[in-house]
Amino acid sequence: MFYNPPVVNKPLNIRQSAATVVNQLAKTFLKEKIQTIVFARSRVRVEVILSDIQELVKKEIGPKSIRGYRGGYLPKRAARD
């Protein structure tokens, strides 16, 4: 699924936070036991989304059922290789 958040402020062309929508969708999917993968552009964003989703579902399915993964190299390591 690809999702383009709606515009919430037309004069400034500001869209709804994608992270907010991701949290809501992931919570719904996980409660229905639908395996879900969420991608983000940065490691920090992944960690924020991960902790938000874990907090949202900790009572229903348990936070340990959700894992974060950062692919690729850290900038310092990539420069050495």
Looking at this protein, list some descriptive labels.
81 residues; mainly alpha
Secondary structure blueprint with pairings:
Layout: E1 7-9, E2 14-15, H1 18-31, H2 43-57, H3 75-80
Antiparallel strand pairs: 1-2
Notes on the structure:
The chain is mainly α and 81 residues long. It has one domain (7-80). It has 3 helices and 2 strands, in the order ββααα. A hairpin with a 4-residue loop joins β1 and β2. The mean pLDDT is 82.
Integer tally of domains: 1
Strands of the widest sheet, in order across it, are 1-2
| Beta content | 5-15%
What low-confidence regions span 5 or more consecutive residues with pLDDT below 50?
none
Evaluate the radius of gyration.
15 Å
**Tally of extended strands?**
2
> Major sheet, described briefly?
2 strands, antiparallel
What is the string of SSEs from the N terminus onward?
EEHHH
Shape: flat
Mean pLDDT: 82
Q: What's the end-to-end separation, in Å?
A: 35 Å
Query: How many helix segments?
Result: 3
Helical/strand content category: mainly alpha
**Helical percentage:** 40-55%
